[in-house]
Amino acid sequence: MLVKKDMAPDFPMVETAMSRDTSLKELTSQYDVVILDFYTTWCAKCPDAAKEMQKLANDSSTFSGSVKSAAFVLVNLENDLEGAAEFCEKHQIEATSDISSAKGSKVISVVIDDDLLPSEYGVQGIPHKTVIKNGFVVANGSDVELAKACAEAGDAGSDTASTCDLGSEEEAVDKKEEGALFKFEDRKRALAVSDDIKRKEGDEVLLAENTQRWVMFPIKYPEIWEMYKQHEASFWTAEEIDLSQDMTDWDKLSANEQHFLKHILAFFAGSDGIVLENLNLNFASEVQLPEARAFYGFQAAMENIHSETYSLLIDQYCRNDEAEKTKLFNAITTIPVIEKKAKWASSWMDGKLCFGMRLVAFACVEGILFSGSFCAIYWLKKRGMMPGLTFSNELIARDEGLHADFACLLYNMLENRLPEDVVHEIVRGAVSVEREFICDALSCDLIGMNKKLMGQYIEFVADRLLQALQYTKIFNVKNPFDWMELISLQGKTNFFEKRVGDYQKAGVMKAAETTAEGGAGGEAHAFSMDEDF
Questions:
Q1: What is residue 34's predicted lDDT score, i.e. its pLDDT?
Q2: CA angle 8, 340, 282 (to 5 degrees)
Q3: Mean pLDDT, residues 297-326
Q4: How far is CA 41 from its chain centroid?
Q5: 131 to 7, 13, 113, 121, 150: CA distances (angstroms)
Q6: Which of 103, 134, 218, 397 matches a 20 to 30 Å C-alpha distance to 303?
Q7: Residues 6+ apart with CB under 8 A from 429
Q8: How far is CA 55 from the centre of its chain?
Q9: Handedness of CA 255, 257, 263, 269 (dihedral sign)
Q10: What is the distance in angstroms between the CA of the first residue and the CA of the last residue of the chain?
């Protein structure tokens, strides 16, 4: 059940008077405070609760000066437009039909299908009230004292929605901005932004019908081909990971450290499946260039290996606790903080959004949403612990860095680019989700890391991604962890070069270079009976 400072999950609703589709996120993006009163027409206590909502909406002293607008929303759980209208009329509730004008306080009547209401709200007894400020919960439950909760929302200032305590007041993200980070996830707004670009996608070289897409040669886009060969050359399997020393180190970790690592692995185990599903259902079929399809095919294979590796790690570390193992394997539905992060990622699989918007979002998934977790695991390597875990982390971080770089490469080939403010909003959303996960909900201080510096590191990674996408930085911060240069999150590290020297499949990169320079054919592909087989 939602508690204070949790992000309020979105859900669809229909405004009663005009039968207009809306959503919680649409309301929270317009109003400083949104108060939800879940009710039914047959509930004996619900009329009094609705009248209290009306009274508070009419009272100018309900909120302090920090609240400029508030929506008191009567949420009918029976999905009955006629019944909700009759309820308001019978009990003299003055519900407005102008829900878009976010000035002052007003009562809004809506209906929902209770099957679409997220379970996190915990609506069992009614009336049930939820007070939300800038997208984050102030109070939630059937026993909420509404006047007191509204006063608290007014007094909360900029701290209500601070989901990541970075250690000092001046470093805290402004509450109003923090709430706005999530408004772009509203489907209607996202569709409005992408519709114009989507109409032009047929002219994009990446997406235009290509009758030669089934044949690889001749190579027309050597940069894409070279990145595919680079990925091919760095192939590895889960069987390479030696966990023999890890169990000795695992038993030496504190309970907090074990808790932290298990939840990191649980997120990774499910998130690779989200990336894989997006590749298979969307990108791999939408993109028409055979060179890019080759990369996506290889990326899909590697995502399977990543998922296998994380599952093996969970299986090993939780070998004596089957119940916990099951919970971690199903973390996307059993652990709320992981569910939030996974939902952000999966929300960008919507094919109604333009390709460029989804490409940027999944660059954020692999370039930002994984960054704090990679960094935290690498911190253990500095302590000389868990060599199997840390080695697999290096391999996977290198792969994910390459995947993010590839997304940037393709995006920069698009003629119809997203406006910078739109890209900034997507990136801000990813940064907020990752900081909430790694700085607050899970809290990297459990393993001795500085939360303030971790937050700064995530911002630094986001700025680097923006530069790769050819947009301006948002945060303009330095990398607080110099040692993170070692694991290729930026795509310019020594790790890949070392891995190529130690492991690269013989001749793969050389063949790629020859193909890129001279195309298909030539001496690079000549057959010789003098070769050893």
A1: 94
A2: 120
A3: 88
A4: 38
A5: 11, 17, 20, 11, 7
A6: 218
A7: 181, 182, 184, 185, 344, 364
A8: 39
A9: negative
A10: 63
